[in-house]
Amino acid sequence: MLAFTPTDEQMDMLLSRLKKLTNDAPQEKVHLHLDKPYYSVGEDMWFKAYVVDAAGNTLSDRSKILYVDLLDARDSVKQTLLLPLINGMASGNVHLSDSVLLAGNYHICAYTKWMQNFGSEYFFRRDISIVNALKETVNGGIGHDALTKNKALAAVADVQFFPEGGHLVNGIRTKIGFKALKRDGLGEDISGYIVEEGGNEHLAEFKSEHAGMGVFALMPVAGKTYSAIIKRADGSEKRYPLPKADESGYVLNVNRMGDSLSVRISASPAFTDGREVALIAQCNGVVQFAAKTKLDKASNLSYIPINKFPTGIIQFTLFSPGNLPVAERLIFVDRNDGLIANVNTDKPEYAKRGKVNIGLDVTDAHQQPVVGSFSVAVTDENKVTINEDNEATILSNLLLTSDIKGYIEQPNYYFNPNNPDRLKYLDQLLLTQGWRRFSWVDLLADKFPVIKYQPEQSLAISGSVLTLGNKPVPKAKVNLIARSGGGLMMLDTVADEQGYFVFTGLDISDSAKVMVKATKANNGTQVKTVIDQKPRLNYAGNHSVFYVNSTGLDNYLKQTQQQFTELAKLGLIKNATALKEVTIKAVKERDKFTMAKMIPHSANIDPGSADYVLKPDKLDHVTYLTDALLIVPGLEMKKGGIYSIRAETSFTGNRPMLVILDGARISQGMMNAIIPADVAGVEILTGNSKVIYGGEGSAGVIIITTKRGGETTPIDNSFNKQHYTTQGYTPVKQFYSPPYDTPDQTKMADLRSTIYWNPDVVTDAQGKASISFYNADGTGNYKVTLEGMDTKGGLVRKTFTYTVK
Q1: φ/ψ (deg, to 5) at 50
Q2: What is the sign, positive or negative, of the torsion defined by CA atoms of 331, 108, 783, 339?
Q3: What is the pLDDT of residues 111-128, one digit of tens each?
Q4: What does pTM read for this prediction?
Q5: 362 exposure class (CB count in 10 Å sphere: 0-12, 13-18, 19+)
Q6: How far is CA 487 from the centre of its chain?
Q7: What is the spatial distance between Cα 793 and Cα 789, in angstroms, rounded to a whole number?
Q8: Which residues, listed in sequence order, are joined to residue 349 by a DSSP beta bridge?
Q9: Which neighbouring-strand residues pair with 635?
């Protein structure tokens, strides 16, 4: 019998290694809930991201930024989104622009910077088919055949055999799982039998049951070798050798027996001398069970209650007396403890464009209400065909595919309650798929992951200030100016003793033009700034295998073309009739003298009232903005800044002039960080402007207006300045669902395939939430898909349909 021995020195060593790994390198997982399984060029791909701590599947607070990459068939990144994570969640959309994408097969990947420490195999990854309904014809290379022709033929048809625990051992009967694959990498139905080499007796017969997988039992005999004779559907036969059995060793068998797991440890006679072996069971790096047993007989059987384990994959590892992992078995534990979502509609059926009211009631397995966050997609089943078994769901991803190697065919088959044998076939899957989260051999050799990247807490820009001879400049002064979305951000900091600086907490939307300027602590400018390059993944050259589910693609293409035709009639999509240009005339024209002084987009409260105006032609040849101001009559440079000799001086001491940059007050010291070529104009009010700008305006005002967006002039990097464009948070659109609350609101046919998308459905303390939307013009069944989780890591996926007539 297994006996728990927490003070055992050997066991303590094993557990301490695993604890160090879990503490120093905790894992994150990502799941994306998409509104549908395939798309057309011209559409938006809507998604909700859930980032969880792998140890408990609870929402992670470790990372605050999520990366989402869209890759083409050659693993080239076509688009990258950066999204802020709030409480481990984010939502967004990928616009599938025809200027960037062609019809074909794509991958969508999602990850955090922290996850890059452990390899891209940990990332969320899903294959996506994209058609092109903007084209005029269904054929011509954009239909079903074109999208499936590059389905991977990476491997020849093959059959593999996997002894339970990892090894066949002479004299010990054990299960052997097998997997048969076709040339496209998908499962193949086969049958066959086992023969001893040189003999014809059928020692065991087998037949695949699901996705080319099955299982049989065999007890190898010393001095014998074995082969499998397999028969395919076309009647052909082929011989495959079984793995060679070890002369002696250990075998680990784990099976579910009611409310317990039966664990059998078998050993060769040479090892049944009373020696102690250790067994550790863990889930995502967290130990759930640890025990030792004396091997004083050939077979040792114990039972462990299921309630000792969480729902998910449990890895059992058997260790020899010398602390070597000698057998391993994965098994899935289903506690039936997921969330329960009850969905109520206000009508048994609905009309076209009718309003739908849905009430949600979410509880845990004990019928207690839960507070959680959920995403809801509604699609027209006549346009979008969804095979629930093929879906990558929050259950299949976070509980299965994120934890084992290799492609899994029909991942949600194992979580679809409509499949009565799903747990039986899931056990066969785990007999034939490998574990990848960590290696006990590496842990015992003190090989731990190298942590290169820390969890991102915000957008940041970092770098170093160096002398022209590449030596660090300690305590350098560093200024940053970032223009994004029409706004301006100005920050300053001081580098450390090694010249390293970092600006954190940046709130940058989309792309931003950035200038970083540095000086020595004594304001010397003979330095250079080197900006740290953000680590980005290079997928190129991987050419990943595609497993495309193309069911319904042709129908989807035709239906979406009809939708785009309707949109084109109103000029709402590309190639539609353009709207006529509208010219807006000013209500009152100003005199030519005043107009000549005005700066477009100026924040001046009284445009045209400036005493002096500097336009771009006066700024082209100056290094610093203050150099241009020295030619302005009435201004003088003194200690402390630029002063107006005409300004009011009745207050104590003379004040430097107020500076306004694009409507925001800044210090005069920040002016030299502004790029003169990026300035649209400077307006100088040399007199008393107290009435307009308050007390600060009494000393005169310098109003700086910078150019907008693409108007800025590129400048070469030089010495203490660096100019570049950085990517900020990706703007997220709001999903639009037409409100048909008035008669004849629009004559355009509503042929949308995604009827409704809401990534932010939150239940209250009673576990309740409600949503409402309007149907489109399609009739038949509409499918509602809900995914999400509560604050304790409880997961749910719920689907149901309603009828539109």
Answers
A1: -120, 120
A2: positive
A3: 999 999 988 888 999 999
A4: 0.82
A5: buried
A6: 28
A7: 6
A8: 803
A9: 644
